[in-house]
Amino acid sequence: MSLSWAAASGTDEHLYVVQPALNPKKFQEFEVTERKQLTHNTAQLRFRLKPDQELGLKTASCLVAAADIDGAESVQLLTTPV
Predict the structure, then answer these.
(1) Which of 1, 39, 54, 57 would you label with 82, given CA atoms 20 to 30 Å apart?
(2) Which residues contact 46 (CB under 8 A, 6 or more apart)?
């Protein structure tokens, strides 16, 4: 299912369509634009979205992240974005 909604621009009264960046049926790649180490085992990551995208998570949703480590090990992590 594809979702889209209209949102008001902060600079004028025109409306534009905002697409959710996430698809609950498949993993998608996003570029990491910033990594900030918070503790020895916690980091804050920021990802680049297209200008017409929003993350698309509802309140109390979780995010499943997946990565292939050195092409051999596949890792998945469930997390709640802040």
Answers:
(1) 1
(2) 32, 33, 34, 35
Residue 57, Cβ density class (10 Å: 0-12 exposed, 13-18 middle, ≥19 buried): middle
**Three-state DSSP class for residue 35:** strand
pLDDT at 14: 56
pLDDT digits 0-9 by tens, 19-32: 888 888 888 888 88
Give Cβ neighbours of residue 4 (< 8 Å, ≥ 6 apart): 17, 18, 19, 20
Q: What percentage of residues in the chain have a pLDDT greater than 70?
A: 80
pLDDT in tens, 31-44: 889 999 999 988 88
Domain ranges of the chain: 5-79
Q: How many residues are recorded in the chain?
A: 82
Q: CA 48, CA 30: separation in Å to the nearest integer?
A: 6
